[in-house]
Design goal:
- The chain is elongated and about 65 Å long.
- It has helices at residues 2-26, 75-101, 112-148, 163-184, and strands spanning 31-35, 44-48, 52-57, 62-66, 160-161.
- The model is unreliable at 190-195 (pLDDT under 50).
- It has a domain at 4-27 and 75-184: Butyryl-CoA Dehydrogenase, subunit A, domain 3, CATH 1.20.140.150.
- Strand 2 (44-48) and strand 3 (52-57) form a beta hairpin.
- By secondary structure, the chain is an alpha+beta fold.
- Helix content is 53%, strand content 11%.
- Strands 4-3-2-1-5 form a five-stranded antiparallel β-sheet.
- Belongs to the claudin family.
- It is a multi-pass membrane protein.
- Keywords: Cell junction, Cell membrane, Membrane, Tight junction, Transmembrane, Transmembrane helix.
Length: 211
């Protein structure tokens, strides 16, 4: 029962992490900057994500523009896109594999060993997906921080971490933690020893010796 509860907890955490990775990938707030002109009326917030850039005016109006060409994007942004998409696809595979190996499901009930292996395999895929998302968000965040502290970067064009980065870091951590719980939910096999052979008892002596 303890392993079943740990397995369910791991799947829930990993699934929530996978949903968070999807949300983080779709959000445009990967980095954000605030700019104010000569008066407060021209104040606006600038956001940039993996797929589009947005500007929110002080009046609350938001305008977004999708990036025109994939080939014009920086190679680091393309790599971040690829890692996040790969994390989503791996998470989708991990969901189906882990569900098959869950104890509460009736699939593969006739072979419990294979069923447990499926749950562990799903946990491993969740860990790989979480690591891919963690690398992508950390790499992007490092670029934002380096550009922010670069003295040659104009003050009005310096960006800070957006909310999508924090969601991505939390989601990647949940996916890795949930995958680890799934891997640890497999009960250890008990060592089986061969049954002890009984030695034949000596027949009681009758007191008669035969020559």
């Amino acid at each position: 029962m303890a392993s079943g509860g740990l397995q369910l907890l791991g799947f829930v955490l990993a699934f929530l992490g996978w949903i968070g990775i999807i949300i983080s990938t779709a959000m445009p707030q990967w980095k954000m900057a605030s700019y104010a002109g000569d008066n407060i009326v021209t104040a606006q917030a600038l956001y940039e994500g993996l797929w589009m850039s947005c500007a929110m005016q002080s009046t609350g109006q938001i305008q977004c523009k999708v990036y025109d060409s994939l080939l014009k994007l920086e190679s680091s942004l393309q790599a971040t896109r690829a890692l996040m998409v790969a994390a989503i696809l791996l998470g989708l595979i991990a969901v189906f594999v882990a569900v098959t190996g869950m104890k509460c499901m009736k699939c593969m009930e006739d072979d419990q060993v294979k069923k447990m292996r499926m749950a562990v395999f799903g946990g491993v895929i969740f860990i790989i997906a979480g690591l891919a998302a963690l690398v992508a968000t950390s790499w992007y965040g490092n670029r934002v921080a380096r550009a922010f502290y670069d003295p040659f970067t104009p003050v009005n064009t310096r960006f800070e971490f957006g909310s999508a980065l924090f969601i991505g870091w939390a989601a990647a951590s949940l996916a890795i933690l949930g995958g680890a719980f799934l891997c640890c939910s497999c009960p250890r096999r008990e060592t089986s020893y061969p049954p002890t052979r009984g030695y034949p008892k000596n027949a009681p002596s009758t007191g008669k010796d035969y020559v």
